[in-house]
Write a structure and sequence with these properties.
One of its GO terms (cellular component) is cytoplasm. The chain is 30% helix and 25% strand. It is built from eight helices and nine strands.
């Protein structure tokens, strides 16, 4: 829930990444490279300050997370986003993290974004088409679908990495079921008070869960409830 910098001190994508490295949020060269390659400025509404460390409203009572949260999730999932692996981004919003995942797993992998607001799916596809992940959208290794994210996307399961961009009151069983043995899910859990949970599925299918940090996300809910706010 912290904010590492504010205002217009950073006005370019590379500066944002350098700040995240300086504050110790980005720890690996790979995550830095991915966040440098996928320009966050392509994934925010017109007029927004894309490189400020703050979540932003994107319409439909949804937000794009702050850069430090995107970096945190990429770091937590890095080992499960190796070339050829499968990734699911639940509540994919404007498509930013979905595009990052696609570059991580590469065209030999599979990346799926799911979002229940059709207008955001259209917006995210337009954004991805302008980004370095565009070739994977074209070759079909990256797809974004309109669906209830609480149900995941079983057609492409199991996933090595699952990211959930909204807070669930409890971890949806459908997402646990779609996690591959050896896979990892990062999901905010809670109502008023929320924690970012790291869910690991062991090779024998056993689940272990730990808390990474306190967070504040919009709720993972139905399309109707979200639009009503």
């Amino acid at each position: 829930m912290e904010q590492y910098w504010s205002g217009s001190a950073v006005n370019r994508n590379k500066g944002m990444v350098e700040n995240l490295q300086q504050y110790g949020v980005i720890k690996s060269r790979k995550v830095a490279e991915i966040m440098e390659t996928i320009d966050r400025g392509l994934f925010v509404p017109n007029g927004a300050q894309p490189y400020v460390d703050s979540p932003m409203l994107i319409g439909y009572n949804a937000t794009i997370s702050a850069p430090h949260m995107h970096a945190t999730c990429l770091q937590l999932l890095e080992e499960n986003l190796q070339p050829g692996m499968r990734a699911l981004d639940v509540g994919s919003g404007t498509g930013y993290l979905t595009a990052c995942f696609a570059l991580m797993v590469g065209p030999q992998g599979r990346t799926v974004g799911v979002e229940h607001i059709p207008e955001l799916v259209s917006f995210s596809i337009q954004n991805i088409e302008k980004s370095a992940a565009a070739p994977q959208l074209k070759d079909g290794s990256l797809s974004v679908y309109v669906t209830d994210g609480r149900q995941g996307w079983p057609e492409s399961a199991p996933y090595d990495a699952i990211h959930v961009g909204a807070a669930a009151p409890e971890i949806p069983q459908a997402l646990i079921d779609q996690l591959k043995p050896g896979g990892r899910m990062v999901i905010p859990v809670g109502n008023i008070f929320q924690d970012l949970k790291v869910v690991d599925k062991n090779s024998d299918g056993a689940i272990s869960i730990r808390t990474e940090t306190s967070v504040r996300y919009v709720p993972l809910t139905s399309k109707e409830a979200q639009l009503q706010g």
